[in-house]
Design brief:
Structural class: alpha+beta
Radius of gyration: 28 Å
Mean pLDDT: 82
Low-confidence stretches: 1-8, 20-85, 558-578
Number of helices: 15
Number of strands: 29
Distance between the termini: 67 Å
Shape: globular
Helix content: 10-25%
Length: 578
């Protein structure tokens, strides 16, 4: 019997063999394979091309097929040129007017209360985050209340914290330990019990719920939640006179802190992309991006054999960049970039992509063969391409900004675990001279909601503020001969004829799209600051955001003879609500 040969299987074996050793990605292989314009155009810009043209083996067949007619056929439908003008290059937008128009994941505060709707959206998440998920069960039986919440729709690594309302509580086994000896129970009685499930397949139903509820068909042993992380809460109502003491806020609202998705670390040869049981938890944003693009059940669902394997060396190197140690002003180090957050299927997967890229000042590009190029926020000359006068057919350059668009103060915002995972400001960056010239402070926020390190938020904010202060930005209409630059994060302009003011300058490729009407591509760019990577912890780090103290309460007064308006019937009614 003849055996079929799957080229993707061969590519997988080859890539995984390389994963056992650290490689250095070569942008001349696979990413930018077209010839330079110097090979195509005669010396000196004369406005015409000289042949033969060196063709790119990846892109030329694709573009020839598209440009050969008024459109192309996909599953029986004709797609026009306008329909293919989608983004090739993706960078996260974290500030300015454009940020308001981009899809964004929920704010961290939005995850404190569970969704309560008939068919809730599914949750997913990476890194560590606080969330409550969606309510699956909420039933009262006698003096007990049973609730189950779906945290995320995939397996997770572990639960690391629990909150009842805004009180952080600990567990002794499954029993909630009172934070002050008064709320949610005491040493002699189990008032609140919490049961957690990681989302294994198959999972195990909560037996403490099955026993009392299965007889009525409400919650049976078949309610396992395979592949879905969940938590259950069992509350027992105390006697009426103690209800306000043990449940001062009424029925408790449960939220958890969890280490979320297990991801494939392609730098570890013991892990396999086809065996999720070998994956591990990580805070690395590049690993999160690979998981979201290829393995997340609610992501873009790309084929990892096409998206990752052809450029696996590149992904390995960028993951290592995120894991580099950065010194702290107080001593010690922390990882350059980490990521943690959650999203729902209510939003386009692009919102998750943007949030992940924002945590590492990342840049991502989809190659013509489906491979994804990715670069984390650290400048390297090997990723620089060149555009010449011959490659550009049109341009719009903004050398300054309008007064109302000026930015002279930049405020990074991030999610702060020390304040129970709330959105928090770091110390801001400002240009005092520009403020004096403008006569007022012109602030702008930088939203890094999946960043949980305040120093990292400061580093990201400094990079964005430097780009905002560079001011020069615009668009370039690029011929197909400039395809190398389209697939590069940074571009050096060799344009003494067309753009003498930018000749020799380095620009940041922020977004590029296929633009057939312009004869090639349209690139949106911003001037690249010379000191984009400059970071002095003693000067630039600032100080940690303040953590406000929580008041120590003696408890809510209980019913007494001085409160005749609180009848026993009213108290019983309150007790029944839990």
């Amino acid at each position: 019997m003849a055996h079929s040969v799957n080229p993707f299987d061969d590519a997988l074996r080859h890539a995984l063999a390389k994963a056992s050793r650290k490689g250095t990605y070569n942008p001349g292989i696979g990413a930018f394979e077209t010839a330079t314009t110097q090979e195509i155009v005669a010396s000196g810009w004369s406005g015409e091309y000289r042949w033969p043209v060196h063709r790119d083996p990846i892109f030329t067949p694709i573009f020839t097929a598209i440009l050969g007619s008024g459109g192309f056929t996909l599953f029986g439908a004709t797609i026009s040129y306008a329909a293919i003008a989608s983004a090739i290059v993706t960078t996260a937008i974290v500030a300015g007017v454009q940020y308001l128009l981009t899809p964004k994941p929920p704010k961290p505060e939005d995850g404190r209360a569970p969704l309560t709707q008939p068919i809730p959206y599914r949750f997913w998440g990476v890194g560590e985050a606080r969330l409550a998920g969606a309510m699956m069960l909420w039933e009262a039986l006698d003096n007990k209340m049973y609730s189950v919440q779906a945290i995320v729709g995939h397996r997770i690594n572990a639960y690391t914290g629990y909150y009842l309302n805004d009180d952080k509580v600990t567990l002794s086994g499954n029993r909630v330990v009172s934070p002050d000896g008064k709320r949610y129970g005491n040493d002699t009685r189990e008032w609140v019990m919490i049961y957690s499930r990681l989302g294994l397949t198959p999972e195990t139903a909560i037996s403490e719920f099955v026993t009392p509820l299965s007889g009525q068909g409400i919650w049976t042993s078949n309610h396992r939640g395979d592949g879905q992380a969940s938590v259950g809460m069992l509350c027992t109502s105390p006697n009426v006179e103690y209800f306000q003491q043990f449940f001062p806020y009424g029925k408790p609202a449960l939220s958890v802190v969890a280490q979320l998705a297990l991801v494939w670390d392609f730098r570890n040869p013991s892990q396999s992309p086809e065996d999720p049981s070998t994956w591990s938890f990580s805070r690395n944003p590049i690993l999160h991006l690979a998981w979201h693009e290829c393995f997340n059940p609610f992501g873009t669902k790309r084929d990892f054999r096409k998206a990752l394997l052809p450029v696996l060396d590149m992904w390995q190197e960028e993951a290592d960049v995120c894991d580099e140690d950065v010194p702290r002003a107080s001593g010690g180090t922390e990882k350059r970039y980490e990521c943690g957050g959650f999203d729902t299927t209510e939003r386009d997967p692009k919102s998750g992509t943007n949030a992940i890229l924002a945590t590492c000042d990342g840049w991502m590009c989809e190659r013509g063969d489906g491979a994804l190029l990715v670069v984390a926020g650290k400048f390297r000359e090997k990723y620089v391409a060149t555009l010449t006068d011959a490659d550009i057919v049109g341009h719009t350059v903004q050398h300054d900004v309008l007064p109302e668009e000026e930015v002279n103060q930049f405020i990074p915002k991030f999610t702060y675990p020390a304040t129970d995972y709330t959105t928090t400001d770091t110390d801001y960056f400002e240009d005092t001279a520009a403020q004096i010239a403008a006569g007022r402070v012109l602030p702008q926020d930088g939203n890094y909601i999946w960043c949980q390190q305040w120093r990292q938020a400061r580093r990201l904010g400094k990079r964005e503020f430097a780009r905002a202060r560079a001011k020069r930005r615009g668009t370039l209409d690029v011929r197909f001969t400039g395809i190398n630059a389209i697939y590069a994060p940074w571009v050096r302009l060799n344009t003494p004829g067309r753009l003498p003011s930018l000749n020799g300058k380095l620009i940041n490729n922020r977004r590029s799209v296929l633009s057939v009407s312009r004869g090639g591509f349209q690139m949106t760019f911003v001037m690249m600051p010379d000191d984009i990577d400059a970071w002095d912890p003693a000067r630039d780090e600032g100080s940690a955001p303040p953590v406000p103290p929580k008041p120590v309460s003696a408890g809510i007064p209980t019913r007494s003879s001085t409160q005749p308006w609180l009848s026993r019937g009213a108290a019983l009614s309150t007790s029944a609500s839990c």
